[in-house]
Amino acid sequence: MRQIRMKTIKTKRRVQPKTTRSNEIVVVYFVFMSINVCADIYFNRFNKLCVTNN
């Protein structure tokens, strides 16, 4: 966590890396959200199977 924060602080001082950093954040956020959605769907199916079996 500290290394990432140090890198972001260094890149914020420059103008060009700001755009690439923001794009990376958007991509990471999109991937994180998609993983959460997939996990929610998977757990919902798993819970439904458990409820039907019980």
Write up what this structure looks like.
This protein has 54 residues and is mainly α. It has one domain (2-53). The chain contains two helices and no strands. It has helices at 2-13, 16-53. The chain is rod-shaped and about 55 Å long.
Low-confidence stretches: none
The number of domains: 1
Q: Give the number of DSSP strands.
A: 0
Number of helices: 2
The radius of gyration computed from the alpha-carbon positions, rounded to a whole number of angstroms, is 19 Å
N→C terminal distance: 43 Å
- What's the average pLDDT? 73
* Gross morphology: rod-shaped
Structural class: mainly alpha
Strand content: under 5%
Keywords: Membrane, Transmembrane, Transmembrane helix
Transmembrane segments: 21-43
How are the elements arranged and paired?
Elements: H1 2-13, H2 16-53
Helix pairs in contact: 1-2
Keywords: Membrane, Transmembrane, Transmembrane helix
Transmembrane segments: 21-43
Annotation keywords:
rod-shaped; 54 residues; mainly alpha
Brief overview:
This protein has helices spanning 2-13, 16-53. The chain is mostly helical and 54 residues long.
